[in-house]
Amino acid sequence: MARNTRKVETRHGSRNTYKGVVCRKDLRLAIYLRDSFRCVYCCRDLHGAQPKDITLDHVKPHADGGDNSPANLVTACRACNCSRQDRPLNRFCGPETRADIRRLTARKIDRYRRLAKAIIEGSTEDPRANLPMD
Q: Whole-prediction pTM value?
């Protein structure tokens, strides 16, 4: 997977290279589908959210050796993703949330990826279309 890189100053004052999540459109959608278009941190429903407000967050940050694999990526709203920054998961959320993240990331991504590809190709209806928008 490609990485989006730019120089940013961290809260520690060091100048590290930011590595954003750049992944295939079908994989990104598959992760959103796996997580039910819900922020794993605040449980906000992201079905009606603007695309810029739906993000992928690294469970284990790149700085700590994390990668861009689906097992290390979760759906997060922009507010939670920005609030977390590079803090460890146990300092950002409680044990119930961490258990939910473990359960979600343990799911096999293959079936969600097949569904995402079908949605992108237009051969399957978007599952969000049947859900009420608040």
A: 0.77
